[in-house]
DNA sequence: GAGTCGTGGAA
DNA sequence: TTTCCAAGACT
């Protein structure tokens, strides 16, 4: 059963956004669709503050998809720096190639064409259609899901994956006018990022606190299935990160002993190197040397 | 559908 | 210091 959302949420949040929105490069009227697409890739699981400098350097070096497509994927991985999840760099490069090959170098404006690009899932396709092309799309990221979950359904945190009920609520709230819908989508996200945060939400600064079901219910604590805790120290992810950092920071190829030096567990290190090779993040350069692709 | 995939700042 | 997690995508 879906709780009917209150349309009275829309106007106050639009008003709040008009006053409190951050001035981010990819939000400026002069920002290209490519700038928006790059930002969405980088922002997947990565905070805005860390994305800003890398996004600026990326757009300065590769102002168009064609510019990036002309480079090796290894240069994309190198420029990605320490943003994390470097497969995103590989996918962004592949997306640039696809845009150049299949779309005449123009970032496509249709959800379906965007969704078909490497590394572009439902969220990113909807976000680019809305934010770069001002279309009316349901944009469901973790911020929007948290805001709507609280305001409409009185739950502190959303479920692990998007439910049909969430889509129904989001669609019902989405304004009919496409440009207004696009602004609404970014406004809800911004509210989630700045006010309706995961921990210590600033309800006193919320424009819809008096219409929030969660607040009205006394801000009940999360009561769902336990959310998996992500460990890092000693994991393959940390090992892969160490190995890739060596290659990122080297101008060319690197002899294997340089990789061996950064991780003690032989079996784990070999497994991680193999997985990096399988992912295409690392290539064998011959004579026992390795390099970025 | 649950697991996996990086990183570093904040509490 | 340790813990938590930030505009997801893919398998």
UniProtKB/TrEMBL annotation:
Residues 42-194 form the HhH-GPD domain. It catalyses: Hydrolyzes free adenine bases from 7,8-dihydro-8-oxoguanine:adenine mismatched double-stranded DNA, leaving an apurinic site. One of its GO terms (biological process) is base-excision repair. Its EC number is 3.2.2.31. GO terms for molecular function: 4 iron, 4 sulfur cluster binding; 8-oxo-7,8-dihydroguanine DNA N-glycosylase activity; adenine/guanine mispair binding; metal ion binding; oxidized purine DNA binding; purine-specific mismatch base pair DNA N-glycosylase activity. Keywords: 4Fe-4S, DNA damage, DNA repair, Glycosidase, Hydrolase, Iron, Iron-sulfur, Metal-binding. Its cofactor is [4Fe-4S] cluster. It is an enzyme of class 3 (hydrolase). Belongs to the Nth/MutY family. PANTHER family: ADENINE DNA GLYCOSYLASE. This is Adenine DNA glycosylase. It comes from Nocardioides antri.
């Amino acid at each position: 059963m879906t709780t009917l959302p209150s349309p009275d949420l829309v106007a106050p949040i639009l008003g709040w956004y008009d006053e409190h929105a951050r001035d981010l490069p990819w939000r400026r009227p002069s920002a290209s669709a490519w700038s928006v697409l790059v930002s969405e890739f980088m922002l997947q699981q990565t905070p805005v503050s860390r994305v800003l400098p890398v996004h600026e350097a990326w757009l300065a070096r590769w102002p168009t998809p064609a510019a990036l497509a002309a480079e090796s994927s290894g240069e994309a991985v190198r420029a990605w720096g320490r943003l994390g999840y470097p497969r995103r760099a590989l996918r962004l490069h592949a997306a640039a190639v696809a845009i150049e090959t299949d779309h005449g170098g123009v970032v496509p404006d249709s959800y379906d064409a965007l969704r078909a690009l490497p590394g572009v899932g439902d969220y990113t396709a909807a976000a680019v259609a809305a934010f770069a092309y001002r279309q009316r799309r349901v944009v469901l990221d973790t911020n929007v899901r948290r805001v709507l979950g609280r305001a409409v359904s009185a739950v502190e945190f959303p479920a692990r994956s998007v439910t049909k009920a969430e889509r129904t609520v989001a669609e019902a709230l989405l304004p009919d006018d496409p440009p207004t819908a696009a602004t609404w989508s970014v406004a809800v996200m911004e509210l989630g990022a700045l006010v309706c945060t995961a921990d210590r939400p600033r309800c006193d600064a919320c424009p819809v606190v008096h219409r929030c079901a969660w607040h009205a219910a006394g801000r009940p604590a999360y009561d769902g299935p336990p959310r998996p805790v992500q460990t890092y120290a000693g994991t393959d992810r940390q090992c892969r990160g160490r190995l890739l950092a060596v290659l990122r920071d080297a101008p060319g190829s690197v002899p294997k002993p340089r990789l061996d030096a950064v991780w003690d567990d032989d079996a784990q290190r070999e497994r991680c190197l193999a997985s990096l090779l399988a992912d295409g993040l690392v290539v064998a350069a011959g004579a026992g040397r390795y390099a970025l692709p």
